[in-house]
Write a structure and sequence with these properties.
By secondary structure, the protein is of the alpha+beta class. It contains 3 helices and 8 strands. The chain has one domain. It has a 6-stranded mixed sheet. Strands 2-8 form a two-stranded antiparallel sheet.
């Protein structure tokens, strides 16, 4: 099984030892993954919640994914898995060491994501 991680729209305030804001959201049975693959999460951080995601990249050996659709109001935290991922991340890392980033900054951090998802989100 492969662990998959969701990039969060936060960045460390200071250039320090704070990790990139990504949080594990589940696992998949897929053994080989590449950017653009659509995968089903078999086990997620919310019991009985199954989700389809797309692989958007890799960071230090971790598979980064994003949901194929966003909530209608386009609020990142309105998604149950995204909200729980954010809670889990900030239970381990002080939130005051991070700042919420704009969509433009986020797109610079994860350049393949916008290109891949534009096909599905219209």
């Amino acid at each position: 099984m492969t662990d998959v991680y969701l990039p969060l729209p936060y960045k460390p305030i200071a250039q320090s030892d704070e990790p990139t804001a990504i949080s594990k959201i589940g696992t998949t049975f897929a053994k080989t993954l590449k950017i653009g693959d659509h995968i089903q999460l078999n086990k997620t951080i919310i019991q009985y919640k199954i989700s389809s995601v797309i692989v958007i990249g890799f960071d230090k050996g971790r598979c980064l994914v994003q949901f194929l659709t966003r909530p209608k109001n386009d609020s990142f935290s309105d998604n149950d898995l995204a909200r729980q991922a954010e809670i889990n991340f900030f239970e381990l890392h002080p939130k005051h060491n991070y700042r919420l980033i704009s969509q433009e900054e986020y797109d610079l951090l994860y350049p393949d994501e916008a290109r891949l998802l534009s096909k599905f989100r219209g």
